Amino acid sequence: MACIRVLSLFPLELIRWLGRRLGELIWFGRTRMQKSTCRNLELAYPKLDRAERRKLGIESLRQTATIYMESGLVWHWSAPKIDRCLLSIHGGDVLTEDRNGKGMVMLVPHLGNWEVLSYYFASKGPLTALYENRRIRGIEEQVISARERHGGRLVPPTRGGLRTLLLALRRGELVVVLPDQVPARGNGVMANFMKTGALTGTLSHRLIQQTGARACLATAIRVRGGFEVWFDALKDAVYDVDPVVSANAINAGIELAIARAPSQYQWEYKRFRVPGENDIYR
């Protein structure tokens, strides 16, 4: 965490330059991340030739390394300084439109810089989001503190945390869910993603069905000098009572967002892994 604080003192483009160099080391070091990236790109873009996938893979790891280098921006920069990096907002009216008292489930895939969105959402009103337990108490507490300093509330994926999400939605507030993490068995369904079956979480579906909340997808795409924030509507099928139909609608929305900046998706994550089945990444 100390090194992240130091990085927050650097100019944005220098931080990004360092991130790109780190990403190249990860690629050429033939790391686990590099191997997972290659496998995912084979599954997601089978029509690309080997040279094209290699080019996309290198750039993907540059972008992934950059988000970790950029973490200090949101965790330590002042609000006005972060605001200056938000160069454009597309579809942001969705946060202020009248929802007749209904809450909103904001789906934030691992694309671009999702840390920036935590700041932006909290600046617009009450925010509750799930967080992943890092299993290292000292780091976990510091990360939570950094992420909550702009006003958002983080809750763990426990029964109590899920109850907090439901209560927030019933108050008409905003709840953030990461829709592209591989869930534990029993908490997901197989749905289409990049024309391949992928185990997809059903948390968003349960929240929507139990509260009548609206749903939207948001990303912060990295551009020169800052970020472009995009809010994308999802197909009405996201509200279907069938969790598979809903999951397919969510994945279709993620695919459209990825098409905006394919290299900025976190391709090193084992998205097509199915717990309890043969590991296709070996």
What does this structure look like?
It is a single chain. This protein has helices at residues 2-7, 12-28, 32-44, 50-76, 79-85, 114-122, 137-148, 159-170, 203-211, 243-260; strands at residues 86-90, 104-107, 127-130, 153-155, 174-177, 188-193, 196-201, 214-223, 226-232. A 7-stranded mixed sheet has the order 1-9-8-2-5-3-4, sandwiched between helices. Strands 6-7 form a two-stranded antiparallel ribbon. It is globular. The protein has a domain at 81-264. The chain has 282 residues and is α/β, with parallel strands linked by helices. The chain contains 10 helices and 9 strands.
Short description:
Helix content is 46%, strand content 17%. By secondary structure, the protein is of the alpha/beta class. The protein has a domain at 81-264.
Note the topology:
Blueprint: H1 2-7, H2 12-28, H3 32-44, H4 50-76, H5 79-85, E1 86-90, E2 104-107, H6 114-122, E3 127-130, H7 137-148, E4 153-155, H8 159-170, E5 174-177, E6 188-193, E7 196-201, H9 203-211, E8 214-223, E9 226-232, H10 243-260
Parallel strand pairs: 1-9, 2-5, 2-8, 3-4, 3-5
Antiparallel strand pairs: 6-7, 8-9
**Main pleated-sheet profile:** 7 strands, mixed
Provide the succession of SSEs.
HHHHHEEHEHEHEEEHEEH
What is the rounded distance between the termini? 32 Å
Beta-strand segment tally = 9
Strand content: 15-25%
Q: Roughly how much helix do the residues carry, as a percent range?
A: 40-55%
What would the principal axes of the Cα set say about the shape? globular
Content-based structural category: alpha/beta
- Average pLDDT number: 91
Strand order of the largest sheet: 1-9-8-2-5-3-4
Rg estimate, integer Å: 18 Å
Q: Count of DSSP helices?
A: 10
Give the low-pLDDT segments: none
